[in-house]
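User: I'm curious whether this sequence folds into something compact or stays loose and floppy. Could you predict its structure so I can see for myself?
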Amino acid sequence: MLKEKTAFTKENSTALKGVAILMMVFHHCFADPERYAAFDISFAPIGEHWIGIVSYTFKMCVSLFAFVTGYGLFLSLKGLNRECKWSRREIVKWTTARYIKTMSGFWFIAVIAYIVCQLIDGYTARIFFEGDSVRQTVLGVFRMGLNFFGIEQLFYGNEFCPTWWYMTIAVLFIVAAPIFVKLFDKFSVIPVLAVAFFLPRVLQIPYDSGTYIAFQFPFLFGMVCAKYNLLVRFANFKWLRGKLSALNKPVKFVVMLVLCFVSIYFYKCLPANYYYELRFAVFPMVLILFAYEFLLDLFVLRKVLYFLGKHSMNIFLTHTFIRYTYLNSFTYSFKYWWLIPLVLVVDSLLLSIAIELVKKVIRYDLLTKKMLKLANNAVDKTFDTLSK
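Assistant: Here's the prediction. I'll summarize afterward.
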């Protein structure tokens, strides 16, 4: 922790996803008392009240994922062209490729979930197909298609798996990234952030914690941090100099740790519909800065978080079926507040490992590459035809 940072690496970003997935699992276990009301849960020695507060504020996990997404997409676009001078063909090809890369893991699990849930208890048909008429069947196919392509949240909300709402946000991030990179390059960061802050209020867009607007700012913060290398700059900044320089890291550690607790506390207190930038961007930024400077340099911890981060997508997509849909009683049967999320993480992780093994056996990566190649060729043919 005493070494100077040089970069926010891909390993760091994956480890940060590991932090986020642990927060997410804890959040989903205890954020709503109704989820465990039927079970005898021991919250000793902390108490149910404080576990509830921490669990509720761990909704910030979404902000961590949004931040990493913004950071990565910014660097990807700058790698395409540092001057942001992309042709329409280039930007369409980039957007298509990013969409396929993001969604390919989801598609694999979604298809398995549709089939397995239908075989178990007809769950898939109950969710998507409400009746036997032709109109209801067509509507069901349409809704399943929206769900499969990750955009159902824009129209209906995600009934099949409520936590899959984030896939719509992920798709919108991909679409929005080139626009914001271009705007940052043309107008600079501050005016763009100011417009992003005021525009939803001027247009009176209602607040909803499951929408793009709620998590736009952590996404933009990720892009800004990538643009100016702010994580590294903050970690290397010396708060104390001269004779007190030796105390720099201990003092930063204590102050940042206190700010983390303050952020968690005020997240719960501030009304979400007025202060969602604070709740979903500023407060999570404190956690990100603390994690990057003081947690991700601990070798064993970083490796564990990195491993979880690599499986974070699968854990996110499957854990709800374990905790809520089919193994609710099993999950909460472990009684202790710390053991319940731990068991859920282990169950989801083992399922993720099995999923990845199946992908390797069937060479799913080759199928993804073929999809990317076909999409790339389709874009080229379309633009070639339009240019004639």
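Summary: The radius of gyration is 22 Å. The chain has a mean pLDDT of 93.
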